[in-house]
From TrEMBL:
Descriptive protein name: EfeO-type cupredoxin-like domain-containing protein
Source superkingdom: Bacteria
Matches recorded under Gene3D superfamilies: Cupredoxins - blue copper proteins
Alphabetic keyword roster: Signal
InterPro entries: Cupredoxin (IPR008972), TAT_signal (IPR006311)
Signal peptide region: 1-24
Length: 119
């Protein structure tokens, strides 16, 4: 068999395989990945990628907070809190199921972390 003929045969086989796949039930839709928000607190100053994070209602949100001092992270509205130990990342994961704009702050440093907007 010539090299060209081998390639043609392979291509035909690939087409057949593709047609076979099309007759199957569609694969279940993969769940949307969590919207991640990283928050770093150093010397009482907050760093985040954006002062307002917008997500669609129903999405899973994962907030990762690391502070160089003991603090308490609080997301208003959803009323979720994270007790932070110095240098130990804390993770808050939840489904954003209520629409609105919610403030996230750090209680001890008094700093505002960001606003979460759920559409
Ligand atoms: Cu608060």
């Amino acid at each position: 068999m010539s090299r060209r003929r081998v390639l043609a045969t392979t291509a035909a086989a690939a087409l057949l395989t593709a047609a076979g796949c099309g007759s199957k039930a569609p694969a279940p839709r993969a769940a949307a990945p969590a919207v991640k928000v990283a928050v770093t607190v150093t010397g009482g100053k907050v760093r985040t990628a954006s002062p307002r994070v917008t997500v669609r209602r129903g999405r899973t949100v994962e907030i990762d907070v690391t502070s160089d001092a003991a603090d308490e992270f609080h997301l208003h509205g959803y009323d979720r809190e994270l007790e932070l130990k110095p240098g130990v990342p804390g993770v808050l994961r939840f489904v954003a199921d209520q629409p609105g704009v919610f403030e996230a702050e750090l209680h001890k440093s008094g700093a505002r972390a960001f606003e979460l907007q759920v559409d």
